[in-house]
Structure formats: structure tokens, C-alpha cells
Known about the structure:
Layout: H1 2-10, H2 12-33, E1 40-49, H3 52-64, E2 70-76, E3 80-90, H4 93-105, E4 113-118, H5 150-163, H6 169-174, H7 204-219, H8 225-230, H9 272-290, H10 294-305, H11 312-331, H12 337-351, H13 358-371, H14 375-388, H15 395-408, H16 412-425, H17 432-445, H18 449-462, H19 471-483, H20 487-500, H21 507-520, H22 524-537, H23 542-557, H24 571-575, H25 577-587, H26 591-607, H27 611-622, H28 630-651, H29 655-665, H30 670-673, H31 676-688, H32 692-703, H33 709-725, H34 729-741, H35 749-764, H36 768-781, H37 788-801, H38 805-817, H39 826-843, H40 846-859, H41 864-879, H42 883-897, H43 900-924
Helix pairs in contact: 1-2, 2-5, 9-10, 10-11, 11-12, 11-13, 12-13, 13-14, 14-15, 15-16, 16-17, 17-18, 17-19, 19-20, 20-21, 21-22, 21-23, 22-23, 23-25, 23-26, 25-26, 26-27, 26-28, 27-28, 28-29, 28-31, 29-31, 31-32, 31-33, 32-33, 33-34, 33-35, 34-35, 35-36, 36-37, 37-38, 37-39, 38-39, 39-40, 39-41, ...
Amino acid sequence: MVSVLYIARRNCISAIILVIITLFICGFFSEGYCFQPRETTYAVHIASYKNIAGVHTSTELLKRKGLKPFYRRANIPGKGVFYRIFADSCESRSAAINSGKKLKQLGIIKEFNVLEIKKPIDLQKKPPPVTKTVDSKHDTGKGGTSPGNLNSSRAQVKEVMAEQSDKSVQSMIKEPIDLQKEPPPVTKTVDSKHDTGKGGISSGDLNSSRAQVKEAMAERSDKSVQSMIKRPIDLQKKPSPAAKTVDSKHDTGNSGTSPGNQWSSYTNVKTESTKEEGITQFQAAVKDFEKGKYEDALGEFNDILNRDSLASDKKEIALRRVADCYFNIGKSEKKQNFQKAIDSYKSIISKYPTSEENALVHFRLAQSYANSKMNNEAISELKVLCKKYPEAAYIPDALHMMGTVYYRMKRYKEAVEEFRTYVKLYENGKYVKNAYFQIGDCYSQMKKFKNADYWYRKAMKRWPDLEDISQDNLLKQGSHYFRTGQYDKALEALIVYINLYPEGENSKWVLYSLARSFVGIGKDSFGLKMLSLVMEKYPESEEAKESAVIMANIGVRNPGIDVPNYIFCGMDNYQDPIGTYNRFDGKFDNPIKKRENSYRKGCGLLEMKKYRDAFDTFYALLGKTNIGKRKEESQRLLVLCGRYLVDRLYQQKDYINVADIYFKTRWNGLFEHGELPMLFKIGDSLYETGLLNQARKVYEEMVGMKITKGERGKILLAIAKVELDENRYEDAKKTAKELMKDQSTEDGIASIKATDLTGDIFYRQGKYEEAASYYSEVINSGIYSDGITEIYKKYADALKKGEFFPTALINYRKAVENCRMSDDTRLLRMKSYEGLGECFYHEGYYDKSVEMYKKFQTVSSNGEQDLWGLYWMGRSYLNHNDKAGADQIFSYVREKGKEEFWSTIINYCVDEKRWSDTCRRYVKN
């Protein structure tokens, strides 16, 4: 021993090598070879995952609860690879079961089972703490170790070797343990050919191990072995080349473990130089972003995010700036980047759901949706922002933006609510002026013109200078006044507009509207001059052509105005309006010019509200071949004229002429330019005239149009009615069933009407009980207030047909009670009394039956229906044993009926009564 110490003092490194080799040999024979520990353990299995991400999440949660979880990879035949999570491992099955039960009682786990597995390396157990570093008192400063530290080094080496007895020496030296992290298990020894498969080291490895130890010690000759063992590797610094896994054949190239490692792996970390470079690049990216160089900043941030070493706080900042870059690039005409911004913002919200900075994220996400025309998504996001961050600085902007998006969607009611909320909360906000004018325009679009006037009036009182109003709001205000016939106010706004924006994109329309406004207030002289100006400034425009026609119209309406024809162009249109309409037909042979003149004539007649003449003009024009560029516009105007005609004819219940309008327009743009109210009236008129096939085609075309849910419900209901009248019962049921599923249409009205129609279908099929159930559903819904009297009556009819007479009596009475006394309800009341009489008859209350039939006769008119009522009244008299009353009624029926049918049926009734009276005596006996 003295000689060993002497050598150590002279040559520390040689002495330490000798100590390590000596201790290694002792450890090998005493623990690795002579004693074989138990190779299996009983583990508490609590969960299995297909995805490794779930494993990491679960183990972290279990660690927070004080457990030491580990996992193992398992290849299950037929199902693939799973990762099993274990909460504990024990030496015996009973101990493992008790451990699982304890965890279950504590509420940490719900279920578990015990599996016998190969004993894993204890991932939770760290190497024994090193309480002392190299003794600085004896440190020579040359990598040597003082004699005082030698015994300590031996003890520590032996302790580490004992704990890591299933690892090779090369693994211990090449992969020193990081005291801050759990070490990855080494699943293969240095020489796989001599692997015992039991965690020990074969005798063939010994020489190799010694050589590698020697090589490693020589490589680190400037350091003490004690320092190597005690000091863990700093994973934030660049690892030395020796820090790779033992088995180079399975090295991933990323400082990871081999595929055989089922427990954990080292994180692939960046070098110190890379980290410093990343910080520098991060600062550069931030500066580029702040300077508005968004594309440069985007590339730099994306490059930074591809590195694993970025700190979590900087990573969050980088992710947010990437999203902002996409957003700002999208604003600069590269709209496709808004979708990338959307994806990025959504990812940020998912990763950092509780961050206060998400207020801006939600707002930018909403803006991205809006710029991508995803209006519903934008609204939803703005609502989330207002709910989650009510105190955020973006709330005023969000409220105003919500109103703007609703306006864009033509949901003017919701837009008004948001704008009014903004005005109420932010009386002096930066958008308050715009909000006032937007509210006015929304009401105008909803045709609530009084409300619009009120808000425009309030706006003008607060901001009286028209020149300070934005271009868009000034135009909308003028349009509102023009549309509502307030031409004096329209002139005020539009004159300012045309002076401020004489060459604007809407100046042509404004100039034309000014002319019409002058005409509207009776200033025809000024109107003619403005129309002349339109024709002069925009001679080839549609407005110029319409101006010529308007001049002709003024000439028809107000001739004799003294205008200098030699100064203003186009005044001949005013002076000779009839010639304006007919001039080109008589003067030019060119068919194109003739068609153009016909078009102008139609426009003029339409302006003069001579809708029939205008309709006929456009229809004749469209009947010509090669109509050219005016075809689509002529079709639109033809349908427009047809709309005015249909409104008037439908109100007059002139369904035949409405059908005529349909047949003239169906191939001339009806479904391209016709509005839904007009198409509904056409479909109903075709239905009323018995043209069921054509009516169905109209409704089917309407289904394919851009419509609301409520409109779709009305159309489907109309289709089902047509199918019912065509006796296509199954098709009608299918259509009604589809409609009944949609409870959102008009608060369920369409769905209830479909239920009512389904009852009609079953009634028509003779399935009275099914029909009655549907009618009952309609009544119980409480929704179908209009027409409820008729529902009671139909319900009673179905019950009567099903011979449920007492219930039928109740509902007939309800029908009568809810029925107004008017000519419109005469037939309904008459049928209800008739039903009451028949039910009382079948129930044996013949006196009440007679009473009901008398009421039936009171409200009925003379006709075929009266004879049936009288017939049932006579039967009631007969069964009430009032033969005189019955004879009187039957005589009247025979006289009025005149056909043999009535005499036959009455004789049959009388004979039946006589036979039943006779037979009843025998039945009693």
C-alpha cells in the first residue's frame, strides 16, 4: 500500500488508473459475475399510449403528484407499438398490488394492473451526491490530485461502480451522468458479441474496457479523475465528441439513444455558439419587424423557431411576430397571407390560452377572417374577444369592426346594435362619427327610413360641415335622401360630393342623380341642364342614354320649357320625346341601332312607370335575333317590369295574367334577375291556376338560389303542397320530413307548417289516426297561431273519420269558438257545424245533432252542400223518432235534388231504420 501511495504522489494519473482498474476487477467478480440479482420486477401498469407525446404529458403530471413513473415500449401483435406507463415497481406481486390500491385510494389513478417486466434502470434515482469538489487546498493547478483526495476518489468510484453494475466502463466514462437530468439507460454493452444479456460484462470485455479507460484517461491527462466523476456535463454547452452513445451502430446523429432504448433520450441541444447566434438573429428579426420589413422578419423568425435551444419566452414572442408578419404582409395586397395568419394566430391561442396578450391575437385573427371574407368566423372571434377581455384596449375597435362586418354581410339589424353600442360607450371615440352615419345607412337599407332620417339628422347636428364627412358616408347619405325622394337634402349632399370628388368612381352616378333630384323637386330646367351635362361628359355611358330618355319623359310630362338648344346638347330629346322613341326606327336601317332605340324606349317607358308598355317593348326586343350586348340588361329590365306587373296582378288575384308574365320571362332571365317575392307570387299563381308541374319547377329553381333558411323553409313547404296535389304522397312526405328537421326557420313556423301538411298527406291517404297525431302536434306546439281554427277543424275531421267522436266533438267546438263571424270564415263554420251534427248523430244525441244541422243551414248558402246537411238532419229526426220532421226534410231534399240518387239514398235510410226497429225487438227477446 505504501508503494502505491508513493507512486500516486509522483505520478497521480498512473496511481488513479491503477485504483480504478483494481476496483473495477473487484466489482466485476464480486457483483457482476459472482452474484446475479433478480432480473424482473412487478410494476404497477396504469396507462398505455399510442403517441409518445401523451406519455410525456402523463409522466409529468404524475411526477408533480410525487410519483416516480417510467414507461416502456411494447410491440403488441396486430395493434402495433404502444408505450406503457408504470407508476411503481416492487419486488413482489403482492407489494405491487398494495401500491396500486394505495394510489387508487388516494385518487391519483382509477384502475391498474400488475405486470412482471424486466427490471428497469431506476430513472428517478440520481447518482449519489458529491458533497465535495476537488480539494482546492491540495489542487496543484495542473490536473493532479492531492493525496488527501485519493481515498475519497476511490470510495466514490466504487460507489458509482456498484450502482451502475449493469453498464460498461466505457459507457460510464464516455457518458458521465448529468446530475440535473435522468440518465438514459444503455441497452447494449461495448462489444455486442460478448453481451451476456443479463446486464453484466463478459470476460471478453475486460481487456477492451481497460484499454478504453486508459485511452480516455490519457485524453484527459490535464484533469483529475475525481473532477471527471464529480462534475456533471453542462447540457447547455457543446458536448465533447466522447458524449455519443456507446453503440455507434445505432447512433442517431442527434446525441440521441439507440432504437433499443425504451426509457428516455437526451434532448438534442444546441452549442453555446449557436445559442449566441440565435439571440443575435432574434434581435435582428425584432428590429426588422419594428421597421416594417415584415418579409425579412418572417424569414428570420421562422429560422429561429427551427432551433430547439430558443428560450420559451423568446419562442412565444417569435411565434406571435410570425403571425403578425403574415397579417401585415396580407394587408399589403398579398391576401393569401391572411390564411397563414389565421393558422398562426389559432396555434398561438391553443399553445398559450391564458396569456393576456391574446386580446390582440383575437383581434388580429378577426381582422384576418374579415379580410378573407370569412365574415361569420370574424364575428365569432370578435365576440370571444369582448367576452374574455372586456377591459382590453381593442374593445372599441372590436365593436366598430363587428358592426362593419355585419354591414358587409347585409345583416343590418345586428350592425345597428353594434354601432349603437359603440356610440353609447364611446361618445367621443375615434369611430363615433362613422358609427352615426353607418347607423343611418343601415336603417335606410332596412327601409326604416324614419330611423335613418333620425340618425342622419343627429349626425348632421353634431357634425354640420358636409365637407368633413368621409367620401363613403357622404355618398351613402346622398343616396338615402335620393332613394327616399328627399331630393332637396340629396342635392345638398351630392353637390358637395361632386365638388370634392369630381373625378371619383361614383361621380357619373352622382351627376346623374343630381339631374334626377332637380327633376324630383320640380326644377325641370336645372334637371335638363344637368342631364345635358351628363350626356356631354359621359356621352357613351348608360347614364347618358338614360338621360336622353329622361329628357324625352320630361318633354312628355312638362313641355314648353324655354331652353337654349344651341348651348346645351341633347335638348332635342326633350323637345321631341315621341321622336326620341321612334326617330331611329324611321331614320336608320341599321338593325343594331333599331335595337338600341328599342332598349332606350323601354327604359323611358319604365321611367315613366308605363310598366306594361315597357314590358312589351323589352319582350319584343328580346324576341329578335342577335340582340348583342343589350341582351342581359334587357332581360334584367324585362324582369323588373314584370315584377311591377306581378305585384299588381297578384294583389288583384289575376293569376292567369301572372302566369302569362311567367311564360314570357322564364327563358328571359326570370331566375337570374327575379327576386324571391316575385317568384313566390308566380309560383302561387301557377298553383292556383292548376299548373302544378310549372309551379313545382319554379319552386325547385328557387331552392338553388342564394336564400336564407327561412326562405328555404317556405319553398320546401310549397313544393310539398304541390306534390300532395299531384298525389305524389311519398315525395311530399319526404320533403315535409326534411323541413320538419330544421327547427331554426322562422322560429319553427315552417317546421310546424310541414307537420300540418304531413297530417294532410295522411288524411288524403285515409290514415286518419296518423293524420290526427300530426294535427295534435301542431296544436300543442303553440306556434301556429295563424290558421289555428282550421287546424282544430282538420283535427276534428280526422278524429271523426277514425270514429273518435267524443274528441272530435271537442275540437269542432274549439273551431267554432275561434272562428270569426265573417264571409271569409263562412265555409269553415258551416263545415264545423256539419261535423258536430254528424258526431252527435253517431253518439246517439239526435236532438243535438238536429240543432247543429240547423246552425249548419243558417250559415250555408243554397247548393249541393245544403242537401247533404239536410239529409243528415232528416236522419237525426228519424233516429230521434220524429218521423214528421224527418218526412218534411226528406221531401224537401227529394224536391231540390231532383236526381234519382237522393230518392234512393233516402229510401235506403228509411228502410234501414224500419228494419233495425223491427229486429231490435227480437234481439231483446
